[in-house]
Design a protein that fits this description.
By secondary structure, the chain is mostly helical. It has helices spanning 2-10, 17-34, 36-54, 58-85, 98-130, 134-159, 163-187, 191-215. Helix 1 (2-10) packs parallel to helix 6, helix 2 packs parallel to helix 7 and helix 3 (36-54) packs parallel to helix 5. The termini are far apart. Mean pLDDT is 91; it is low at 212-216.
């Protein structure tokens, strides 16, 4: 989130800053609206996968994860396609300025693609939370700062001088994190091992409570 806000601060430094900043803001709002449903799916998947792990049902946990990814793909594809198809009409809802219309249309072309990857990040984060792998999401967040911001600065400020260029940087970093999370979720996470770790944590917690009670 803060990486996106940092890129947002670059928009006023662009040539035609008034138009490009407005375009960035409109495209950013479309991304925010488009990710709300995938965010909800990610939260629900987190709860259901965690519940399956608690029930010692690794097969069900994996099935729920795959269902969550499939549903997220459908929702994000629909939102992305809608925004792209309406890229000429959406700016008219905010302003009558023709220059802002043009800048926003260019930005929406890129941000509409980014919406799909951002949705993938939401479902991936939900799965990792359920498996107690939050550290993976935390590490991947660094990609936005190490890759996303520099690419956004170079393409947006030095090459295209546009809000669309800034979104290219966000698109690159969001795609990297989303694809990485997908690969880890599908091929690395072992739900049976997650169940065993959960049982170990419960045993350690019970022993700690017992020792504390004995001391009292």
């Amino acid at each position: 989130y803060w990486a996106w806000q940092f890129v947002n601060l670059l928009a006023p430094m662009l040539p035609n800053a008034d138009h490009e900043t407005a375009a960035f803001g409109i495209a950013f709002e479309m991304c925010y609206i488009g990710v709300l449903l995938p965010l909800g799916v990610g939260q629900a998947t987190c709860v259901l996968v965690a519940t399956a792990i608690g029930e010692h049902n690794a097969h069900r946990a994996r099935r729920i994860m795959k269902l969550g990814y499939a549903l997220t793909f459908v929702l994000s594809l629909s939102a992305s396609a809608t925004v792209y198809a309406l890229r000429h009409e959406i700016p008219k809802l905010f302003t009558d300025d023709v220059d802002v219309h043009l800048a926003t249309t260019r930005a929406l072309r890129v941000s509409s693609a980014m919406m799909m990857f951002d949705a993938g990040n939401q479902i991936g984060a939900g799965v990792f939370r359920a498996c107690n792998w939050q550290r993976v999401t935390a590490y991947l967040t660094l990609v936005h700062y190490v890759v996303g911001i520099p690419v956004a600065w170079f393409i947006g400020m030095k090459m295209t001088h546009s809000a669309a260029g800034l979104f290219v940087g966000l698109l690159v970093s969001t795609a990297i994190t989303a694809v990485t999370q997908l690969v880890i979720a599908m091929f690395v996470i072992d739900f049976q091992k997650a169940i065993e770790e959960m049982q170990e944590n419960l045993v350690e917690g019970d022993e700690g409570d017992y020792n504390e009670g004995t001391e009292l």
